[in-house]
């Protein structure tokens, strides 16, 4: 028994040590350097019986010329850095980094709040019968709205669209007489035939046309309480040419209603099972042609296209519908809401106040794939205290703020070398393009290498 015990002890003493770290398991250089914190020693004379070629950085003595990945002496290069102007808010515009897996780089970014950055404002209004008074108020206040916005920016354009709902049961009555005159208004005038969405005025600098088009628009009617506003929002966002959205401008979509909304799945009530495809179907004369082809969009689809096209949605709603829209803005990035008075007489103040909140704040996002790259932001905003944040509030025209973007490569990209992504302000076209060259291969493994 004593001999067996001594043999076990001896065997334990000479047995290979258990792996001490994540690097020990790798037997190839490229797999080693693709693991954060690991290095490879390619020295020709190397005692592999006592040491592993793949090791945690700094734990094994190895000739500098034989260590992989090779040190990056030139990690950063500026490719484009135009000066600030009315349409350049962000600096630099394009940079290139060279990093290893697990390595970080802190990139300094600058943003300047400028007064006269272009603004496109599209007013999308529910024109079902209950909004008759609101339409009259908007028609009268159109010139005042334009004047208020032009006081905030000299480069301003205004457009107008309206919606009711899908022209099918159970949303509207399909009785022939009701399709022609669905209701009678408070003014004793007959309602106009129902429709899904109409673009009455493409974004235009001639703001006097706005009041004219609002005044000309006819109020209609439907059966159920929710409206088809999501169809209208989708078309107003994705029909870039028909609406006239400019690339270099703030995009404000003001959505005005007193009612709930239909969303994905509700179309099944009318046999519309085809999911909304998020494409444009508005003709040059402003009519939406596919209202009875697709289901309503989902909330996530609205959020997706709003982010894609840099749209700030402002829900201008009456108090009775405030609860559901208050919850909705939490699901649509860059959106906000304000309470309209019963006849929308406060619409000018509401739009001005919500616009001011948008432009007085800057929030950064990264489009980088989180599987491959991690980006964290910090800033002192307009104070002297740096903290981890991607948002600065309370800005005024002329304010300039700095952000630090800490960029860390998590793993090698699928293409084996290059990661490209954007850092941009929410709902603005301006961005910084970041090209990251990642060292993912070892020259010592290439054919013909010694």
From TrEMBL:
<keyword id="KW-0472">Membrane</keyword>
<dbReference type="Pfam" id="PF00362">
    <property type="entry name" value="Integrin_beta"/>
</dbReference>
<dbReference type="GO" id="GO:0008305">
    <property type="term" value="C:integrin complex"/>
</dbReference>
<keyword id="KW-0325">Glycoprotein</keyword>
<dbReference type="InterPro" id="IPR036465">
    <property type="entry name" value="vWFA_dom_sf"/>
</dbReference>
<dbReference type="GO" id="GO:0007229">
    <property type="term" value="P:integrin-mediated signaling pathway"/>
</dbReference>
<keyword id="KW-1015">Disulfide bond</keyword>
<feature type="signal peptide">
    <location>
        <begin position="1"/>
        <end position="19"/>
    </location>
</feature>
<dbReference type="GO" id="GO:0005925">
    <property type="term" value="C:focal adhesion"/>
</dbReference>
<keyword id="KW-0401">Integrin</keyword>
<comment type="similarity">
    <text>Belongs to the integrin beta chain family.</text>
</comment>
<dbReference type="GO" id="GO:0033627">
    <property type="term" value="P:cell adhesion mediated by integrin"/>
</dbReference>
<dbReference type="InterPro" id="IPR015812">
    <property type="entry name" value="Integrin_bsu"/>
</dbReference>
<keyword id="KW-1133">Transmembrane helix</keyword>
<dbReference type="InterPro" id="IPR002369">
    <property type="entry name" value="Integrin_bsu_VWA"/>
</dbReference>
<keyword id="KW-0677">Repeat</keyword>
<feature type="domain" description="Integrin beta subunit VWA">
    <location>
        <begin position="28"/>
        <end position="442"/>
    </location>
</feature>
<dbReference type="InterPro" id="IPR032695">
    <property type="entry name" value="Integrin_dom_sf"/>
</dbReference>
<dbReference type="GO" id="GO:0007160">
    <property type="term" value="P:cell-matrix adhesion"/>
</dbReference>
<protein>
    <recommendedName>
        <fullName>Integrin beta</fullName>
    </recommendedName>
</protein>
<dbReference type="GO" id="GO:0005178">
    <property type="term" value="F:integrin binding"/>
</dbReference>
<keyword id="KW-0732">Signal</keyword>
<dbReference type="GO" id="GO:0007157">
    <property type="term" value="P:heterophilic cell-cell adhesion via plasma membrane cell adhesion molecules"/>
</dbReference>
<keyword id="KW-0130">Cell adhesion</keyword>
<dbReference type="GO" id="GO:0016477">
    <property type="term" value="P:cell migration"/>
</dbReference>
<keyword id="KW-0812">Transmembrane</keyword>
<keyword id="KW-1003">Cell membrane</keyword>
<dbReference type="GO" id="GO:0009986">
    <property type="term" value="C:cell surface"/>
</dbReference>
């Amino acid at each position: 028994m004593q001999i067996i015990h001594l043999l076990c002890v001896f065997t334990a003493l000479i047995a290979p040590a258990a792996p001490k770290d994540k690097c020990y398991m790798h037997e190839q250089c490229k797999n080693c350097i693709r693991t954060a914190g690991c290095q490879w020693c390619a020295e020709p004379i190397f005692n592999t019986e006592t040491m592993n070629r793949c090791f945690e950085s700094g734990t094994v003595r190895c000739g500098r010329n034989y260590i992989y990945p090779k040190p990056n002496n030139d990690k950063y290069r500026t490719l484009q850095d135009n000066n600030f102007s009315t349409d350049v808010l962000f600096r630099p515009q394009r940079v290139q980094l060279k990093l290893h897996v697990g390595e970080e780089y802190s990139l300094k970014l600058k943003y300047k709040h400028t007064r006269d950055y272009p603004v496109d404002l599209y007013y999308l209004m529910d024109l079902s019968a209950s909004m008759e008074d609101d339409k009259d108020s908007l028609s009268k206040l159109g010139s005042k709205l334009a004047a208020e916005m032009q006081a905030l920016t000299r480069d301003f354009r205004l457009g107008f669209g309206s919606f009711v709902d899908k022209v099918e049961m159970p949303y509207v009555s399909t009785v022939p007489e009701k399709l022609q005159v669905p209701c009678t208004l408070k003014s004793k005038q007959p309602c106009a035939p129902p429709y899904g969405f109409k673009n009455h005025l493409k974004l235009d600098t001639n703001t006097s046309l706005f009041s004219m088009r609002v005044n000309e628009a006819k109020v209609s009617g439907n059966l159920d309480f929710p409206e088809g506003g999501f169809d209208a929002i989708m078309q107003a966002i994705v029909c870039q040419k028909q609406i006239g959205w400019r690339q270099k401008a703030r995009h404000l979509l003001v959505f005005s209603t007193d009612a709930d909304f239909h969303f994905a799945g509700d179309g099944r009530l009318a046999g519309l099972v085809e999911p909304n495809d998020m494409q444009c179907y508005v003709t040059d004369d402003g009519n939406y042609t596919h209202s009875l082809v697709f289901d309503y969009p989902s909330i996530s689809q609205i959020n997706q296209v709003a982010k894609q096209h840099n749209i700030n949605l402002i829900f201008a709603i009456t108090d009775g519908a405030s609860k559901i829209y208050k919850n909705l803005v939490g699901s649509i990035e860059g959106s906000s809401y304000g309470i309209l008075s019963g006849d929308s007489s406060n619409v000018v103040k509401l739009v001005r106040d919500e616009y001011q909140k948008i432009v007085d704040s800057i929030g950064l996002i990264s489009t980088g794939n989180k599987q491959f790259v991690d980006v964290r932001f910090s800033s002192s905003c307009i104070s002297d205290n740096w903290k981890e944040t991607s948002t600065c509030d309370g800005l005024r025209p002329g304010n300039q703020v700095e952000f630090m973007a800490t960029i860390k490569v998590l793993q090698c990209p699928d293409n084996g070398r290059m990661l490209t992504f954007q850092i941009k302000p929410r709902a603005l076209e301006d961005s910084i393009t970041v090209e990251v060259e990642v060292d993912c291969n070892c020259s010592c493994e290439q054919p013909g290498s010694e």
